[in-house]
Amino acid sequence: MPSPLFRRKPIGPMLGHPPPDTHNPDPSGELDAGGMHRTLGVRDLTFLGVAAVIGAGIFSTIGSAAYDGGPGVVFLFIITAITCGFTALCYAEFAGRVPVSGSAYTYSYVTFGEIVAWVIGWALILEYAIGNVVVANSWSAYFTNILLAFGVHLPAWMTTDPTAARDAYDAAVAAGSATDGLAWTTAPMLAGMRLIMNVPAALITVAVTALVYVGIQESKRMANGMVLLKLLVLAAVAAVGVFHISGANYVPFLPNGMQGVLKGVSAVFFAYIGFDAISTTAEECKDPQRDMPRSMLYALLICTAIYCITALVLTGMVPYHAFKGVSDPLAFVFERIDMPAFGFAVSISAVVAATSVLLVFQLGQPRIWMSMSRDGLLPPRFGHLHRKYRTPAFATIITGILVAVPALFSPSGIMTDLTSIGTLFAFVLVCGGVLLLPKEERHARDRKRFKLPYIDGRYLVPTMVLAFVAFSHDRLLAAFGAIGEGGQPLLLLGFTGFALVVAVLAAQRRWSLIPVTGMLTSSYLMIEIPARSWAVFFVWMAVGLACYFLYGRQHSKLAR
Questions:
Q1: pTM for the model
Q2: Cis preceding-peptide flag for 162 (omega within 30 of 0)
């Protein structure tokens, strides 16, 4: 008998029958069995994916990546897209097999078991919440700059966090510069403490949370509108910029070689985060088994095309080395060609882009809470649907608080890394979970449903792993020499050991190449994240495990 920690949810009862909302049932009988409005089609889901992926990242990270990789940064976007594509295919397989809310949490519950599902659910909460704190801070910066262009000056202490304010003050003192107008010196005092907070970041979070609370129809319309605006602006950037491209800027195409290109992998990967959020809306999708897999892949393809075209246009307009330290590259290139008004329009679209990302992630996180509550792992209140709006009302409010309060006071620095850890962790488990799905017979009714292609990895996976070991020979030897220092060397050695075990199992069990490749590439990206961020992540997971053993394990519906 398997351990209670690894008890699995059966797939059969969930197919076409999501758990009913017993607290706020639908008296009309017109809603889905789970109590949620099924209004999302392929186009809506694709737009949600594009809304989540094409955010402030393209308006900021593309500059730093271009500086390191030159015009050849387009290869990095393609490589990252392929890497994410392996995972997207695995998400698509799960979306077809398990068409209910919960995303990677639910997928892990039916394959790995309860404790793993809890861990990934807790990690997704971190990913969505912290990710939105970063986005809210980015939104605030763009919004504040736009207000300045109209002559509106918000007090410095209302547009930053205490850590950034103190760092700016210390830097000014060290340089012998004036400090009179800085946030640290102008902030009012409250109970002996300086009142420094990022008010715009908190306000946009509250506004977006209110929209998500009201309903999926309203959220869908807003997301669709913002995506169309983003696409129009980016199309205009390409259409105008192509006439200002100089072929000389493409030489050399790889100024720092592939090593320089790969240097921007962390920033570029962050720009792809979000396509998986589509899967949280499975119960609001008209035909999740058909539409969700398609929309994930469509969104990824559209975003990749946009990233590649934009990167080629920007690096053709301005020499790659000019992007050093540039935080707003799209506006920057149009200032360089004496079109500041167009650059200002781009800055406005960056605000819209950040808002759309906030919307999708604020939409996704409450549905993770809801799924965990339905399974008994969280209190029932988190699973309640609003009588009128049919949204997880309490979970949405809690999500708003968890993002708005940190957005007021927290710096973005380490948060980007924490978001990436949560995302990649989910990717690893989803790809690994596909390998554990029970085999099924295909029926005529299943033709519309996506099926992950099988490619025998018996020989290919060991070959890839051995090639990695050979290619990383010098780095591995250095890691062995620095093993006592901990941190990154241990992460590299840990990944290498994991990869070798996977290679052996793939050869023995003839695992499919696609999910194994997705699992290994996501794992490798995880070890590139600084060790200090992992320390914070482990503290978060320790808190989560304590919650599980104190509440979730005893109240789990599988324990009854």
A1: 0.82
A2: no
